[in-house]
Task: inverse folding
């Protein structure tokens, strides 16, 4: 149960160089073409300042009319190996206000790049649930138990 | 532990201890962690402490994970597709 064992982790081997894969995260026009859960969801890049400490804001429009807005800050940029950014969904959303962090790791491989995306959940930061220190632990436990 | 409480009923610390054949301090510590994580609730009846699963907490945590897992899986699918297209 390390602090990094909760959340989501996705692995994929991509047939492109780490430089090319990294560029897909670093350029707003490229980001808009793929960083969404499915092609039916429209991504509008509302803000994009790709530098350490710079912010981003993405709006996701679902065909049913709902909109999800995510915002965060680029914390670590190590081209073309690592990228860390915060991720917070804005209200109104069932998961609004939950602080989380995405770590993208790119490792060169024979065919191209081994991509790993880790998305760690740090729980709610808002006053309403500040007493709920449990989120972190809850997610650790959930992964252990399920 | 969560599985042991998953039927929704209450169980005492003693019952849970017997079930896991663990020392009572280990069980108590584990229950305390689950309680501070608000995954379970404790009720005290004299000397007997009973525990119950807070199903809503479990579902909220699971929903976040499922949603983001689906998000990133879908996104990486599209990234893969985009890289293939720009290759040509």
Result:
């Amino acid at each position: 149960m390390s602090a990094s064992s909760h959340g989501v982790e996705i692995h994929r081997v991509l047939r492109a160089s780490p430089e090319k894969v990294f560029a897909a995260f670093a350029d707003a026009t490229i980001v808009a073409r793929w960083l969404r859960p499915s092609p039916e969801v429209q991504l509008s890049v509302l803000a994009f300042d790709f530098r350490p400490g710079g912010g981003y804001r993405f709006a996701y429009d679902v065909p049913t009319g709902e909109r999800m807005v995510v915002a965060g800050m680029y914390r670590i940029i190590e081209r073309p190996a690592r990228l860390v950014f915060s991720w917070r969904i804005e209200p109104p959303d069932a998961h609004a206000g939950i602080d989380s962090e995405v770590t993208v790791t790119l490792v060169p491989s024979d065919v191209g790049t081994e991509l790993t995306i880790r998305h760690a959940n740090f729980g709610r930061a808002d006053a309403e649930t500040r007493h709920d220190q449990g989120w972190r632990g809850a997610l650790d436990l959930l992964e252990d138990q399920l | 532990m969560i599985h042991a409480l998953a039927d929704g009923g209450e169980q005492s610390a003693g019952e849970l201890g017997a079930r896991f054949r663990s020392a009572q301090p280990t069980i108590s510590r584990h229950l305390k962690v689950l309680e501070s994580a608000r995954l379970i609730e404790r009720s005290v009846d004299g000397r007997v402490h009973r525990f119950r699963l807070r199903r809503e907490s479990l579902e909220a945590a699971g929903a976040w994970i499922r949603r983001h897992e689906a998000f990133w899986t879908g996104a990486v699918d599209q990234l893969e597709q985009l890289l293939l297209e720009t290759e040509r």
Q: What stands out?
A: Strands of chain B lie at 11-12, 40-45, 48-53. Residues 27 and 44 of chain B are 16 Å apart (CA to CA). The mean pLDDT of chain B is 84.
